[in-house]
Write a structure and sequence with these properties.
With 309 residues, this protein is of the alpha+beta class. The chain contains 10 helices and 11 strands. Strands 1, 2, 3, 4, 5, 6 and 11 form a 7-stranded mixed sheet that branches. The chain has a 4-stranded antiparallel sheet with strand order 8-9-7-10. The chain starts with a strand and ends with a strand. The model has no long low-confidence stretch (mean pLDDT 95). Bound molecules: L-homoserine. The site of L-homoserine (HSE) has 14 residues, from helix 5.
Length: 309
């Protein structure tokens, strides 16, 4: 039996749409063993809502692993390589914290271990990014830390920064409503003005530099300018601007929609535990004024990615 721990991720970090990702110390666990009959058990998020049959995305990712190493067939003897799967889900679903990336990466890593680690890291990422449709959550879910990623054809190019500020905490406010990434991608324009693209791409560099310790945290908020996705996704997130402002006012140096939402992530650098709680509470009470319950978590950066335990 293989047991894998895989982190939540926050993607985009403001300007880095489909490019930047950061792994967080909030974990799902996946247990997998070969078996004669498929069985899927789920604890935590999605216990009642996620499918427990072949349409389960973790199961499908495992099958992709077997298929890839067996030249297109799911198993050595043309039958199915069935597994018992147990998913222990602490990452909330459809909230922009990379729950689907965690399910897929966790299952790919577990399945790969079951067959003797035949797939390379690049092959795992290639499968995961194809299944996800974008690479920015799957890369940090696999390798941990702060990452920059891009899809070139079907290949994932990525870089993992070896240094991320030690004094960085991510205060996430997780609201009671879900946002579907597929729907949140549909609201974005297909074309952008040159100035929007230039402003946003320079912001990716500024943001990355500050989070890795180059440059002053006071410049973070101004550096996280995004004109590619957040302005268009506001309509999906009640009180998004107000929650951003509440986090800033309470002491966060930067704030962003986590992935495609609905979670909002505040970047808190060098602040006390007390201050981080104030940031979380300020976001929660602002969501509440807009009629939505939410809860906050103060998260550290995960630097390990997916690991077999
Ligand atoms: N980059 C993706 C998006 C992340 O913003 O649609 C989804 O979590």
């Amino acid at each position: 039996m293989v047991r894998v721990r895989v982190p939540a991720t926050t993607a985009n970090l403001g300007p880095g749409y489909d490019v930047l990702g950061l792994a967080l110390k909030l974990y799902n666990f996946i247990e997998m063993e070969k078996s004669d009959k498929l069985s899927i058990e789920i604890e935590g998020a999605g216990t009642d809502s996620l499918p427990k049959d072949e349409s389960n995305i973790a199961y499908q990712a495992a099958q992709e692993t077997f298929k890839t190493v067996n030249g297109g067939h799911p198993d050595r003897r043309r039958g199915r390589l069935t597994v018992n799967l147990k998913l222990i889900n602490n990452i909330p679903l459809a909230r922009g914290l990379g729950s689907s990336a965690a399910a897929r990466i966790g299952a790919l890593v577990a399945a790969n271990r079951l067959i003797g680690d035949k797939l390379s890291q690049d092959e795992i990422l290639k499968i995961a990014a194809r299944l996800e449709g974008h690479p920015d959550n799957v890369v940090p879910a696999l390798v941990g830390g702060l990452t920059v990623a891009a899809l070139t054809g079907d290949k994932v190019r990525f870089l993992r920064f070896s240094k991320v500020r030690n004094d960085l905490k991510i205060v996430v406010a997780i609201p009671d409503f879900k946002v579907s990434t597929i729907e949140a991608r549909k609201v974005l324009p297909k074309n952008f003005s040159l100035i929007d693209v230039v402003t946003t791409s320079s912001s990716i560099l500024f943001t990355t530099a500050i989070l890795t310790g180059e440059g002053s945290p006071e410049l973070l908020d101004e550096s996280m300018q995004d004109r590619i996705h957040q302005p268009y996704r506001k309509k999906l997130i009640p009180a998004m601007d107000e929650v951003f402002n509440a986090a800033r006012k309470a002491g966060a140096q930067g704030v962003a929609l986590s992935g495609s939402g609905s979670t909002i992530a505040a970047f808190s650098i060098g602040n006390s535990e007390e201050k981080n709680k104030e940031i979380g509470q300020a976001m929660v009470s602002t969501f509440q004024k807009a009629g939505h319950e939410s809860h906050y978590k103060i998260l550290d950066i995960d630097r390990e990615g997916a690991v077999c335990l």
